[in-house]
Amino acid sequence: MNRLSALQLAALMLCARCFSMMTYFPYTGSNTLVFMTAILLSTALQWLLLLPVSVICSRYEKGVCELAIEINRIFGLVITAAFLLYFAWDIFITTGTFAYFMDNYFSNQISRVPAVICAGGVAVYLGGLSSSVLGKSAGVMFLLFCIFTGILVLSAADRPDLTNFHLAQENIPKTLFDDIKAELVRNRELVMLVFLLGDVKGSKRKAVFSYLAVKLVILEVMIGFVTLVLGSFGTSTDMPFFYLSCYSNSSVVERYDAGFMSVWTALAVVRLAAVLHCFSRCLRLIFKGISAKTAAAVQIIPAAVTFYLLSERSWKGLAYLRESPWLIALLAGAVPLAVMLFMKVRKRADEV
Amino acid sequence: MRPDYFKTTLLRADIKGSLDELRQLCGETSDLNIMEVTVCSVRCAVVTIEGLVSTSSMADLVFQPLMQLRYCDDAAGIYDYLTQKSLLSTQRITVNSFSEIVRLLFSGFCVILIDGLSKAVALGIQGFEKRSISNPDSEQTVRGAQDSFNEVIRNNLALVRMRMKTPDLRFEMMQCGKLSQTDVCIMYLSGRADPEMIQTLRSRLKDIELDTVLSGGYIEPFVDENYRKSFFSSMMTTQRPDVTCLRLNEGRICILVDGSPFCLVCPSLFIDSFQTMDDYCTKPYYAAFIRLLKYFAFLLAVGLPGLYLALVMFHPEAFTLKLLLNLYVSEEATPFPLAVEMTLLVVMFEIMREAGIRLPKSVGGAVSIVGGLIVGDAAVRSGLISVPLLIVVGITATSAFVIPQLDQQISVLRLFFILAGSTAGLFGIAVCAVLFTANICAMDEMSVSYLAPLSPFNKTRAGGALFRKSFREYAKSRDTVGDYLER
Prior knowledge:
Low-confidence stretches of chain A: none
CATH architecture of chain A: Orthogonal Bundle
Number of domains of chain A: 1
Oligomer: heterodimer
Distance between the termini of chain B: 50 Å
CATH class of chain A: Mainly Alpha
Largest sheet of chain A: 2 strands, parallel
Order of helices and strands of chain A: EHHHHHHHHEHHHHHHHH
Shape of chain A: globular
Largest interface: A-B, 41 and 31 residues
Number of helices of chain B: 16
CATH topology of chain A: Hydantoin permease
Number of helices of chain A: 16
Largest sheet of chain B: 5 strands, antiparallel
Mean pLDDT of chain B: 88
Number of strands of chain A: 2
Low-confidence stretches of chain B: none
Shape of chain B: elongated
Helix content of chain B: 40-55%
Number of domains of chain B: 3
Radius of gyration of chain B: 29 Å
């Protein structure tokens, strides 16, 4: 296993987050400035959540699960199993969301089953490679995303309207709190970050900081820009990025929604590959003797469950499901904090 | 008799017995020349292989000195004269086993056996026919050197040594191929190339168990650890001695194979394919412009046909109205589906290109005229293919010629993208792009990433992918491939 650089991990996480951002924004009914403030505060909260994991990974040069197993095998296996279940859930949700939005919104010519099979096949291949390869591929895809976003912004920048920013909002504290929760839930990749941070060579804090800082800039810029161009429509729809791409045009391209779909697909595959990679790593931590190929084969299970649900045509509820933020807070913040405390206690005991 | 009998058998003091064994070992081959002669009352034999030695050198450097020898009265005296008291040839080796004798004979040496001695003297007087040094056909430059390697490894070594007059330049010769015993030379600059990398390469070459090694392509699968897993190659080839020196200076290891006019460079990077010697003969801004052009040409060569199909077949709404109407009018008149039309045209182009390469140069030009102009024009006039499609394939083909190093990969990748674009539109293109990006990113030759210095990102070197540094900066820094090691 080659180790990731801080920038590669940041790029991987950014790909995952940009996929969520491009898919949909959770509609909270708040105005843009409140939503942008909520994103800022949520990012600060995420930084606090990630502090313990960056401290322990920097100190011990190992991942959270490996350290937990080192402290106590049972404790470690329980934690690894929790991560495994979360990743299985993430695979399930990512696959389903990808298929649902592809089929219903972004392309009406490609049916979901072959789309999921193709994207899933490539994701399994990529997920089976080392975390370093994942990071490198994510870097390329993130660059692609940046180029596309740049073109999109330039193509739509001729019709901005500053009056779309206004301060009218009822019950600001409650709205702000709801928005912070909604934004935190959209960051499922934080759990991946916690799991993979031990693989980073060099500064772990730089990896966390780069990810959070770039993510904050991208989100703020995109939301701000969508509001500038689309006005109140941008905040009243759940897919502003997609509608922005439909609305943008230039003298060469009439509309960018096809480009949007291709970039979104690339990011979806990278995100799915990253979760599959983490899933198979968890599996191999729990079952020591399991081979890489078997671990890769097991990844098909969550995808197969997704297929069943997709055929039931009841995916919409799941795609827009608002998960509890506490689960992310628990796995990304509380678990590393517990491991850190246990490590401290053990160190003291060793000294005595 | 066991097949490896002669490998371990030493020469005899009895010359007649030795010659009999040698004849038997060579299977009484007709090109084995044995000339027995008495020198100062001692029986000697001069053994050569017909056509591999220079007859004039043999007359001047072997026959004449031996015949003029007067004051030796025993075998030891003649041996002493040949090895200590004369300068008959630049290559003078004492041999005492049949396996060594055979190897040297087939390499163009003349072997002198002396009755009463269980050893022989081999003198290098090679004189086989060889191609003269010519222009590098596959890597033309405007302002770079105009010489290239030929099939004789010694000449190729000299071409490199001539340009790198430093004792740090090391040549390590070894033999590969159980039957062919081909000379393979590892070249590196001591102090620049990573010692662990050299050792790895050395052991990989030693482990080759092929019967014959006839070109660099034979050893590539044994040296390139990504050979079976990856679409691209982490070993580049060059025909140019100046490029070889450039790479040696960057800490790469080069491999020359006797009989092949190409040098293998290991490890190679993706960005290497976009650099030529002309970059170093022009101003940096122009070199940067050309490099940028090449990256763009690569994207066009690989993706344009697939992208065109995806947009026309699945996402026509992306075109502006005027363009869309033009395309509609052109495509409406053709009888075949667009995907079939494109695939046929690309395959036809590949066939013509292959014919142009394999045929003699004088006829090759005619093939491109017949293929490109006559057939293309006729196909458009008869309405079999549309003009926009022909333009797309033409641009694609021309773009591919800009990067000859990635020629093979481009040809096949293009077909993958055509398939993806025609079956799933931009979705297929995106999935295909991720797949091949992952495949490239997974390439890691001797702990050096194929995408270095772009990924992992090296902020001091990443600019080199696009810009050529000024020579003042080259003088200050000593960039080597060892800087990208991920151990």
